[in-house]
Predict the 3D structure of the following.
Amino acid sequence: MPVEHDVRRSGVEKWNPEESWGGESGAVAPRRNRELSSRGALAITRPMDQDGSETVLSSVGSLASEVVGTAVSVDTSSVGGNTICDGFGSFASEQPARAEKAGTSRATAVNSHAEPRRRGPYACTVSTPKIVSFYVFAPLPDPEAIRLWQYAVCDALGLRGRIIVSGHGINVTVGGELGPVKRYVTTTRSYPAFAKLTPTWSTGTGDDFPRLSVRTRAEVVTFGVPDEVTVDADGVVGTGTRLSPRELHELVTERGDDVVFLDGRNQVEAQIGHFAGAVTTGAATTRDFVPILDSGALDHLKGRPVVTYCTGGVRCEVLSALMRSRGFGEVYQLDGGIAAYGAEYGDDGLWSGSMYVFDKRMSVDFSDHTELVGRCSECGRATNLVANYPDELGRELAVICDGCLKGLEREHPDTPFASAVSDPR
Ligand SMILES: [Zn+2]
């Protein structure tokens, strides 16, 4: 049963900012300003004085400059006592020195008053940090060129996050302000191979990634078998049948307990959240999956309908193909991954627990009644916290409760255990 839930609590949203300027973003980026920005003309008319006279803010060149098809935003400026933000950048008037310093044309006040009445600055306090994720499997003849292009776009827009480019496609998770992130998506879509990318949006904090990392790799996701994966214009060749969250429920209704979930993620991810009755492999990294498959450890599933799932679906594109080529006869993959499922069913379907994510949030919950399915690796208490935990056992990430984490921090004050832990509870 689909349920309504508060997307502000959920890390992942059904709301798609590309389709709407109402609601959350509407207050930040009115359509008028968006249109002005998109055509690079930045004349804005707004009342300046209580008598209703208007000042026209004329073209600000740097805001209109195109960097790989994107407008560069500038810092919020308090100009002549007035600041306007439109979600893309700030529009400044009556401060020629600053405008010229920024390489812009002189802003011109053309109202009828020689000395417009000044009023105090009002700060642009509305921030809409967003994280967008997507992947595309498609042949990319020149991954290095794509890498340079993607870096330039993200750098110009002030985005941070991780992008992997390979000859097989691209995998992206980046965050920043809503406007720049949208522009990044639009710009990326301009490359024909990426035209049909399907972004997943979630609410960020504005400081979710330590840096921008854009790298080329042999594989989009590192299973360690680049030569075994074939990609054409339709994606990975021989991949498992995609199921939407609704189709997944239909399959389970139809086939019952015969359906088996296979967690395509690493062990620590599965420890804080998983599908009902899922088979988890204990993999420490994605590289472990091929040896596990080749060991025969999962061969007992070969006669059953197997649904693989991962965070956003990218790992299952490859994993399901590797399984099919190894004799698993009926392999499905959850399209859009746990993120898509959680956005539709929250914690009222077949999923339990928190979803691990690869940014500073560490995990996201889909409702206000998320079950604590993780167990602290130190004391066994129920928790869904995951921490950086480089201990004597060589673990890099571990499920650990807030109390044990604080104790470890007191014992080892120089060790950055919890630099990225999500809210304790
Ligand atoms: Zn503990």
